[in-house]
What we know:
SH3-like_dom_sf, SH3 domain, Substrate Binding Domain Of Dnak, Chain:A, Domain 2, five-stranded antiparallel β-sheet, BAR_dom
Amino acid sequence: MQKLQRKAGLLLHRSADDAQVSLLLKDFEDGDKILKSIIESVKAFRIAWTELLQHASGMATDFDDLYQYIHGDPDTNRRYHAATRDQLAKAKAFKECLASCRDVIIQELADVERRVGGPAKETRKHIDAFRKIIKRREDRKLDFERYKSRTVALEQKSTRSERDNNALLKHQIDLDVSEKGYEVADDHLKQSLPGLTKAIMALIPQLVNSQCMIQNTLLGHYYTALHGFCQQYGYAIPSSEWTQVQTEFDDVFPRVKRDTETIGSIAKGKAITQPFATRPDSLQTRTVTHKNGIGSRSSSNGALPAPIPAADSMPPPAYDMSLKPTRTISNNSYSRPTPSPSVASFQTSSEYYNNAPSVAGSQRTPLSPRMQSGGLRPAVSSTSLASSVAAKKKPPPPPPKRKPSGLQQEYVVAQYDFAGGEAGDLPFREGDRIRIVKKTGSINDWWEGECGGRTGSFPANYCKPM
């Protein structure tokens, strides 16, 4: 019960700490944050150096493998310029140089944990133990504030009953006890926190100094190994100018390119003989992909819906509620209309048979009623087949064009979902077609439209013209 009361006390107005105690607590928290940052930095430092050594060793191994003799057909080696003994020796020496450097640096990396990470973690353990003392002091403060608020509330009552007087007496006793406990806890912090904070602040420069010394040692090993290799095999220190490097590259690159292009798997590979396959735009907008991965066509008029925006695209535009008309529609329920099949999506039987795809280059003929019902004839003569084809009913003529109506209707297509937040709104889904009933001259306004048999207001910037 007391723990719940203290939790509730954290939500109330808190009194200020003593100025000296508040400053000590702030210095204590700052020291803890610095130690935590040092521990995380040491871990990242070790990971970074380990990955650097792994990549360097792998690069040297790949160089050594590339310069090796190609075993197999002798004609293959005659067509390419084999590496000289000097190149093979350089590749092998570079591999051995980085391997020995890696072994030395990995041993030095163990000192990072021993000299920096270990002391920082040990100090944080003592800090965590001292946090219990700070937590008990915070509990004493919460008890003091709770009893003080109860005492003040009863003292401010103009008329108190006998029960109130008894409660006031009890709260005053509790207030005296909690105040003494709070003062004792503050005095303990004033005595112990300065020494602990001073020790933490004195340790931090030592840890940073050790980190810098280890970093210099690692860089020294790495530089010494590479410098010795460069001196042994005549590489310039410092390196040559960029123009000289580019000139040497331009001299060597044509020969390497020519040798590479003579390799059969590269010269006649798929990347050379076939172009990059790109998906047509017509296929990208063919279907609407829902969240469950199932594609479906738009339900309005058989038209193809607009492509769905990508996950990282911009959110729907904001609409101004102040521009919304005040017209109210009583029915606020929304149910998406059942997709009705379009007239253009059906085909007559004659159109189907005229447009039926061929199989194996032969024209398929429609089945007779008897064959459709399951009865099969053993054979059909060519005369009867010709007569049946001649007796087939001619396809109907195309329907005449519709006369344009006097009133031209205007439609828009929804680009985003709109659920409608108030009565009179016209909810819709992305891809729905909306007939405009009334609109203004601005796209950043509320228009009136009809969709699925419902009429209402909708934000115009959620749609685009058809």
